[in-house]
Each structure stands twice: as C-alpha cells, then as structure tokens.
Amino acid sequence: MRPLLLACGLFATTQLSHTQVLLPTQVMGATEVPDIGSGIGLLDQQKEKFIGEKVYRQVHRQMPILQDAWLEDQFLQVFSGILSQTQLGQPIGLVVIKDPQINAFAVPGGLFAINTGLITSAKNLDEIAGVMAHEIAHVTQRHYSRSQEAFKGQGLLALAGILVGAAIASQADGDVGSAVMLGTQAALIDKQLSYSRNQEREADRIGMQFMYSAGYNPQSMADYFETMHRATSRVSFLPDFWLTHPLTTERMSEARLRANQLPKVKSKIYDLNFDILKWYTYVTSNQATEIQIQSLASQKNVAAQLALSKFYLEQGDYAQAQSNLDLVKVKLKSHILVPLIQTDIYLGQNKLELAENTIAPIQRTMPENRALSYKFAEVLIRQGQVAQAQTLVQRFIHKNQRDIRGWQLLQQAANLDKSSPLQAVNVLCYRAEVEYWSGYEENAIKSMLHAQRLAKGNMAMSAKIESRLKQMQDDYRRKI
C-alpha cells in the first residue's frame, strides 16, 4: 500500500534523477481481480478507515517508527504505483518500522507497514514491491473484513501486539518481548485470525497482477519467497510474517509458475538507486556498524560512501560526514540525498546561511517534494522565518492530516511566532495533533481543551477547536 504518485521508467546509469526511487513503466491494461460482492457498504468502509487510523496511532505509540521524510517518500512512491492498479481510495498511509525482522502488514482502510529488515534483506526494489502488492491484495479483497472475528478489530490489535512484541524482543535480551510475542501469537492462533491458505494464494495471485501492471518484475515475488524460506530454515523460530502469512512450498511453486506465465520484465543487473536506498536504511535503522560500511566504502562503493556520510552525521562528526559526502558529490550530482545530508551538516554546525543556500534552490525547482520542503522549513525555522516555514509545511498537511513530522514543524514554528496574538493557542493545537497521531489521544484531548480555554473570545478559532476536539473525543471513546 502506498499513496498515489507517478510511475516512471527505471534506468541503469550511475547518474540519478531527482526522484531517486525510479519507478518502472506501468503495463497498460486492467488488472483482473475477483468480485468480492456488494456486501461492503459505505458504513463498512468508514469503519475500515476508523480501524486503519486507530491502528496507525497505536503503531506509532508502541513501535519504533523510522521518521525520515526521504525514506518514507521513496516507499510511498512504490506503494502508490501499485495502489493505482486497484480500486482503493485514499489510503491511510505507510510507516517504516525500525526492526531487523523480515515483516510487513496491512490493515483495512489502507494502512501499510514495512520493517527495515524486509528492506535490507531484499536484493532489489521489485522484491519489496512484491511484498507490498501481496499486502495490498489482502486489503483490496478485504480478507480481514470477511472474517467476522477480525472485523471486530481483535485480529488487528492482536497483530499490532505481535509486532510490538517483536520490536521489544529484538532489543537487548527481550524476555518481556518474547512473552508478549508468545501471548499475542497464541491469541491469533486461538481466534484463527491468521490468513487462510486460500486467502494467501489469492493475495499472491492478485498481488502479482498488481505489481506486474505497475511495471515490476513478477519473478521477484517468487524470488523473495525463496529468500525468506532460506532465511527461516537457518533459525529456530518463525518470523512474525510466517504466523500471519503461512508460507508453504506449494505457494512458492505456484508463485514461480504464475510468474513464468507472464511476459518477461527485464531486471537490472545493478541498481544504484536501490543500493543507496538499502544502505541508507541500514544506517538509519542501526543495522550496520561503522566497520561494515567502511569496508564497502573502501571499495569505492558510492552507496556505502553516501551511507557513511549519513552515519557520521548521526554521530555528530561533521568533518567525517563532509569528507565522505565530498567523495560522492560529483557522481551523484542530482540525487537529492546529497543536498539533504549537506544541509544537515551545515545545520549541525549552525551555518544557517550555507544551509539555506544548499537547500533553497533545489527545493524551489521541486516544490512538490516533501523531504526537500521539510528540510527547507527546518532551515527557515532556525532562521526565525516562521511564516514562510508554515506556508511550506501546510501544503503537505492539507494533503495528509496524519503527517506527524509536518505537525511537529508547525509546532516548532508557532513556538517562535511571538508576534501572533494566538501563539499559545496555535502551539497547543499543533501539539495536540502530534500527540493524537502519535497515539497519545488523552494528552491530545487535554491540549485541545487547554487551547479551547485560551481561545475564548475568538469565535472563529473557538469553533475550529471545538470541531476538532469533538472528533478526537468521539474517536477516543469509540471501540473496535
């Protein structure tokens, strides 16, 4: 699952375009999917949206979400390209979870989550697209909703519990996490909320049609099944993905047979775009050590050199970060990670003018790019240019009210807006949105109540706050 974006052709040169994750050319023609009947009405769709948003907030509260605008946007592009092959409406969104396990899940309403372990274990972007397509197919066919128990919400929350347990267990010596995992897994098995074999095969078949129609190589779905199967055979426990998506040799062979029946899609021998994406994920999810990245970077691997710059940036070693970034600037002239990392290096050293001169020109040529706009907004906030920063961010908030990073930037800007008579009210309202979408609903309601008291006398603002407060309170009280 991923929001709506344009698909464009992959190319194999070392010069990268501004879009980074270059999407394959879409295959024209309708994707054939089974008719699941007219039993899903408007009320059920609204309930699915509510469930999706509820789990979205719960996952943000309990899981180690990787909030990186550039990385999120790369997978949103892939997600959106596949989603455009379906009849689903505007999705809830996509989250990247900082967890080395191979896992992904989808929730009614259009919420998709992907673990960093899934990204770093993949050999190419098509394999990730295959997993996304499989999960999207589960949602389009309403596999959760067609199970009465699952549609009550218990299955979704149990699944979220499994993921939480996995995250806790992956940290240090997670005895508590293991207990959580065992408990939620037992609950799933007891309630028979795992996908059935028929549902899995349907998701494989339809998902493969979706990814092929979006221009991805259908062989990659079968390839990744085999990768996961080999990885599982070397460990003594089953990854969470197996518990909710039981993988059988029959499914693997069927996937390969089905892929062989589709016209061939040429794969790239080496994709620098994906290599950069993968190593950047390694660094931001703390899945690679300095020695590991240095070893590859010493072989003049461009992706590793760029990742090493990001690694040193996160360590606060700006000299080393700059040194490694300088090594790749000529080779990656048009890759937006270069100005993004360069801007952060300057911000870390409080060189605000250099930071603005780096990010502003490229952001103005690509105003639709969220990562560039948010980085520019950070610079403007540091410079005290509050109104300009707010204008940049609000464009994206209007498109997606669940954008936590956007609300955080608006809150930071409002904190500096001393000239506004409603400064305190705005800060509280923006803080409430951050708290709400981060899963702290009670705190969000308290912040809105405080804002409501301060806004008395301003009829327009009071009405706006009252409307949003009521919506938060209603959603908080409503059970799934």
UniProtKB/TrEMBL annotation:
GO terms for molecular function: metalloendopeptidase activity; zinc ion binding. Its cofactor is Zn(2+). Keywords: Hydrolase, Metal-binding, Metalloprotease, Periplasm, Protease, Signal, Zinc. InterPro entries: Mito/Outer_Membr_Metalloprot, Peptidase_M48, Protease_BepA, TPR-like_helical_dom_sf. It is found in: Periplasm. The active site is at 135, 204 (proton donor). One of its GO terms (cellular component) is membrane. Its EC number is 3.4.-.-. Pfam families: Peptidase_M48, TPR_19. It comes from the Bacteria. Signal peptide: none annotated. Binds 1 zinc ion per subunit. The keyword Signal applies. GO terms for biological process: proteolysis involved in protein catabolic process. Zn(2+) binds at residues 134, 138, 200. Residues 68-256 form the Peptidase M48 domain. Belongs to the peptidase M48 family. BepA subfamily. Functions as both a chaperone and a metalloprotease. Maintains the integrity of the outer membrane by promoting either the assembly or the elimination of outer membrane proteins, depending on their folding state. PANTHER family: METALLOENDOPEPTIDASE OMA1 (PTHR22726), METALLOENDOPEPTIDASE OMA1, MITOCHONDRIAL (PTHR22726:SF1). This is Putative beta-barrel assembly-enhancing protease.
